[in-house]
Design goal:
This protein is α/β, with parallel strands linked by helices. It has two domains: 166 residues, P-loop containing nucleotide triphosphate hydrolases (Rossmann fold, 3-Layer(aba) Sandwich); 110 residues, GMP Synthetase, Chain A, domain 3 (2-Layer Sandwich). 36% of the residues lie in helices and 24% in strands. The protein has nine helices and nine strands. The strands form two sheets. A six-stranded mixed sheet has the order 2-3-1-4-5-6, sandwiched between helices. Strands 7-8-9 form a three-stranded mixed sheet. The chain is globular and about 60 Å long. The two termini are 30 Å apart.
Length: 300
């Protein structure tokens, strides 16, 4: 197709501004985990939107925060690293901001440095009045010449088509990099690990926020006695401390059971087949400082 366009788009923003929610809304599939906690996304997740005249490959990045561990440093490196490698930057900010805060300023400076085409998306517009929104648009427009400024409510998927149209305008003619039925380059194992971690983050208190790491040791497709397809998945949830392990397991194993039940339901939706999920909990102290694990989260 002569007029076909394609390209890579990075979604950047501070922690918890709604990047993963926006990504899932744009793709229409669950490719990024969502939890109401900062730093949920650890890696640069690629998600693919196939349109009639274009293929847009989105990269959801870890939220910008002040790193305290090797894992944190790897996350920031990943987030800023994608800015250099993409065709368009989608800069997501919160509508409730009064001014350009430290985190947003840091991202803005990186965008200026790159000189790339950028679209400013103002999320959570349902929380503010119109005057405040106009003021925020004015503040940011003086800082950088954005290709477009789009107010949005990512949780409702409002204005996502407008955003896709604006991105498509910027993209140059190019081939489709992925098959049209693909929506992510993550493996089944990675998606399963992320889904289990999301359920744990959602169900647990802040006592165990980011000391969790999930590893799928086994994922095989087989058939039941009735010859129905089923996936057997075995996963371990690693914690930083023994006390955390107790919280994840819960009284009489109730919490782990709950995490497993919710994760299994989502996995069955994702894989389109029955899932037999077994989960264990182990302690791996200082895993956030272990290169062998941290390297998994670095941008490939």
């Amino acid at each position: 197709m002569e007029n076909f366009k394609s390209g890579f788009v990075s979604i950047v923003g501070r922690t918890n501004v709604g990047k993963s929610t926006l990504l899932n809304s744009l793709v229409g599939e669950k490719v990024a985990i969502m939890a109401n906690k900062p730093q949920t996304t650890r890696t640069a997740i690629r998600a693919i939107v196939n349109r009639e005249n274009s293929q847009i490959i989105f990269i959801d990045t870890p939220g910008i925060h002040k790193p305290k561990t090797k894992l944190g440093e790897a996350m920031i490196e990943t987030a800023f690293g994608t800015i250099q490698d993409v065709d368009v930057i989608v800069f997501l900010i919160e509508a409730t901001s009064e001014e350009i805060g430290k985190g947003d300023r840091l991202i803005l400076d990186k965008i200026k440095e790159s000189g790339k085409k950028a679209i400013l998306v103002i999320n959570k517009i349902d929380l503010i009045k119109r005057e405040k929104l106009l003021n925020l648009i004015s503040i940011y427009s003086k800082e950088y010449e954005f290709s477009a400024v789009i107010p949005m409510q990512a949780t409702k998927g409002k204005n996502t088509e407008i955003l896709l149209d604006e991105i498509e305008k910027i993209l140059k003619p190019g081939p489709a990099y992925y098959d049209i039925d693909e929506y992510t380059d993550q493996t089944g194992r990675q998606l399963a690990e992320e889904l289990i971690r999301e359920k744990a983050l959602r169900l647990l208190n802040d006592e165990v926020p980011h000391g969790l790491f999930v590893e799928v040791e086994k994922m095989e497709e087989t058939v039941t006695n009735k010859k129905e397809p089923i996936y057997n998945i075995e996963a371990t949830i690693y914690c930083l401390r023994d006390s955390h392990k107790g919280i994840v397991i819960g009284k009489n194993g109730e919490m782990l059971k709950k995490i497993g039940t919710y994760a299994r339901k989502d996995l069955e939706k994702m894989l389109g087949t029955k899932v037999n999920l077994k989960t264990w909990v182990k302690t791996k102290k200082d895993w956030q400082e272990m290169d062998s694990i941290v390297n998994k989260f670095k941008n490939k």
